[in-house]
Amino acid sequence: MNHITTARKGQTNLIKENYDGLDYFRMIAAFLIVAIHTSPLTSINTTADFVFTRIIARVAVPFFFMVTGFFIISGFLKDNSFRNPDKYSVKPDTAPLTKFLKKTADLYGIAMLIYIPVNLYSGYFKQNNMFLKLLKDILFNGTMYHLWYLPAVITGVLFVYLLLKINKGTVFLLISIILYLAGLLGDSYYGLTESIPILKNCYDFLFQLFDYTRNGIFYAPVFLVMGAFIARSVKPLSLRKCIAGFIASSVLLFIEGLLLHAHNMQRHDSMYLFLIPSMYFLFQLLLHFKGNYYRSFRTFSMIIYIIHPFAIILVRGLAKVLGLEDFLIYNSLIHYLAVCLLSLVFGYFYVYAIRHIKQGKPDIKGRAWIEINLNHLRHNVKEFQSILPKNCTLMAVVKANAYGHGDIRISKELNKIGVTSFAVATLSEGVQLRKNGVKGEILIFGYTHPQDFKLLVKYRLIQTVVDLEYAQILNRYGSKIKVHIKIDTGMHRLGENYNNISNLEAIFNLKNLVILGAYTHLSVSDSLTKENTAFTKAQIEHFYKTIQNLNDFGYNPGRLHIQSSYGVLNYPELSCDYARIGIALYGVLSSAYDKTRVSIDLKPVLSVKARIVMTKTIEKGDAVSYGRTFTASEERKIATVTIGYADGIPRNLEDGYILVNGYPAPIIGRICMDQLMIDITDIPGVEPDEIVTVIGINETNQIKAEEIAMNSGTITNELLTRLGNRLKRIYIN
Questions:
Q1: 659-673, pLDDT tens digit by residue?
Q2: Are strands 691-698 and 701-703 parallel, antiparallel or unpaired?
Q3: Which residues form the active site (predicted)?
């Protein structure tokens, strides 16, 4: 039940992000669930107890389903899906779905483990056909009477996701309603089912699979869909309409429940026809509520839900030990209040313990950090794949810690979307990827010392042959080593010169080299000047001519690659087997001034954030930072920011700025090792602990990495790879 997550800003009626009403009602709903299992008004009036626990309290579980739909299901949908009923569609990225299912399954597993002692005491594991019974309970009923919700929400979310994936238009809405109506016939309207023998036989068969229709197939989908529908609504209902609709539908719900109860129609009492409109109006009404924000309510409500049966057992046991059965058990209202209080105590100690544990660990967002947007990474991959020739494979360049983005996590994310070709600069980078489970080909661009050749074989890495002499050293190792041959066509860094065809032939004749490919490096493919374009075309011609000569001599050069990021953007017509995409994979170009022949929609993957540690006012004539390079010409308000050149911020960025509340704040004085100072005189409401943006988007403004690199006299490649390990990487889907 703890499924509230940060909402997407694209959801129209969520822009204000006002969920206080939902959080408060989480607590109310949790106590209503306790009421269902304790019947607090039984000793006062049984009809009143029925109304309270079997009608009013039945809003609790649909509310939690709708919260999940509101935040989780709506997040699966592409933008505007609910605004155009003919275009309901889900995002191809299944990471949010997987994350939700794992989190809920983990919670379910922990809850089942907690109640194993109770199951043992009650003889649960001594039942006939125990394996089938256990399987049925795990999948549908729950291994304790209250745990059915967790498999229901897992099943329901999966079911709705598949409906959205398979069906076009609004069919899935209709299916969820039909399933709910079918569920009614196995629940509150079972009396009708019993009067029709064929229908009764069908439901008798269903009840061999699960005990009730209040599950993830019949019960959950309609409320999950309603929650998602409300999240994506263009215009929320007015407060007046919410109140009027809720009152009217609640009256009808009371009448429905009492009539069904009076005529003994109910097999169970979780599902009512008028529960649907009641929940629709109640949920929208809660979105209008504004109050103080208590995030801990989310945790408290979860603990109350999980632990309250234990509280019931403890209260009853304590009452018997103390001889207080009449007071703590048979007085149903006192019994209910005692269970609620004990559940709250459990919740308090859990929250306190979690906070205590967290206090012992540094907050990764406590000082300064990097945020990596994995959605942008996936987007950039698709953009490049859309312009590559048909048989050309994207080779992701993840050297230098994936240009500062975190090579292991980036490579694993790329593996998930089908990228299986990688390039690194050093042996250690390749070994690290392999040790962390990265799949596919890993090409090492640089030199590997002969003492480490064994690691090339052990970790299935591909070594670059930089010239004939190095090829002979590799060959003398004695074991087969996979290689790509580097051909120097004009950069004169690494590679056997294209003119030395006899040397290249000699390399191909070395028996221990398994030659899988050949490549060259274009030295000015980022430039579109006439002179540099001519040089690049000459390099390309030299490479293809060399390959043709090798083919003519009967040698197979393997898979070919010429282009890096700029090679693809400026020469997309080249037909190769690989394209080595480096800096542009991460959504940036090397320079702010660079123009390319092909324009694609690149999205920056990396942002850098820090905090303001303090603000102060300085007087005219006061100097700031080392060397007194900045002196105030008048009274100014300044702030100290928790990031410096030891984190990779260029020390010569003294004329730069960062973003505070969406406003540019000039950097003043020299950048220190661990801090920098900014002028916030003209920016309103700046307080200590404020998060500022060094690279990325803040409010409506953006600082691009290209801009910072330009102001520092360098390129983004250097800027991003210098970002230090003190900056924790936070990966965002």
A1: 998 889 999 999 999
A2: antiparallel
A3: 399 (proton acceptor), 626 (proton acceptor)
Q: Report d(CA 515, CA 458) in Å as an integer.
A: 18
* Per-position b or e across 68-98, b if 16+ CB within 10 A of its CB: bbbbbbbbbbeeebbeeeeebebeebeeebe
- Write out the two tokens for 495: 């590679």
286, amino acid identity: L
Residue with tokens 């920056």: 604
In the set 115, 219, 305, 399, the catalytic residue is 399
pLDDT at 296: 76
8 pLDDT higher than 70: no
Spatial separation of the C-alpha atoms in residues 317 and 574, rounded to whole Å: 79
Taking all residues of the chain, what is their mean pLDDT, rounded to a whole number? Answer: 91
Chain centroid offset of residue 330 CA: 49
The residue whose two tokens read 């899988």 is 516
Supply the DSSP string of 185-200, one letter for each residue: TTTTTHHHHHTSHHHH
- Domains contained in the chain, CATH given: 12-356 (no CATH), 374-586 (3.20.20.10), 606-703 (2.40.37.10)
**633, burial (CB in 10 Å: exposed 0-12, middle 13-18, buried 19+):** exposed
- pLDDT reported for residue 81: 52
Does the annotation list 493 as a binding residue? yes
Q: For residue 512, what are its two tokens?
A: 């221990």
Statement: residue 83 has pLDDT above 80: no
* CA–CA dist 469, 491 (Å, integer): 19
> In angstroms, how far is CA 362 from the centroid of its own chain?
22
> How far is 25 from 235, CA to CA, in rounded Å?
22
229-241: b (≥16 Cβ within 10 Å) or e = bbbbbeeebeeee
731 as an active site residue: the answer is: no
Is the overall model pTM greater than 0.85, yes or no? no
Name the H helices within 39-122.
46-50, 60-68, 74-76, 95-114, 116-122
Structure tokens at 342: 């004990």
Tokens of 492: 């004169």
What is the distance between the alpha carbons of residues 276 and 282, in angstroms, rounded to a whole number? 10
Torsion of CA 29, 34, 38, 39, to 10 degrees: 0
Distance CA 711, CA 707 (A): 6
Residues facing 370 on adjacent strands: 608, 729
Listing DSSP states for 442-479 in one string gives EEE-S---GGGHHHHHHTT-EEEE-SHHHHHHHHHT-S
Report pLDDT digits (tens) over 362-419. 566 679 999 999 999 999 999 999 999 999 999 999 999 999 999 999 999 999 999 9
Spatial contact of 293 and 340, defined as CB atoms under 8 Å apart: no
> What's the full length of the chain, in residues?
733
Residue 99 falls in the annotated catalytic set: no
Q: Are 282 and 63 in contact (CB under 8 A)?
A: yes
User: What secondary structure, in 3-state letters, does 349-393 show?
Assistant: HHHHHHHHHHHCCCCCCCCEEEEEEHHHHHHHHHHHHHHCCCCCE
106, 116, 110: which is closest to 143 by C-alpha? Answer: 116
Q: What's the chain's Rg over C-alpha atoms?
A: 33
Q: Cα(271)–Cα(184) distance, rounded to whole angstroms?
A: 6
Token reading at 639: 């702030």
Distances (CA, A) of 469 to 74, 485, 498: 60, 12, 15
Model confidence pLDDT, tens digit, residues 244-272 = 999 999 999 999 999 999 999 999 999 99
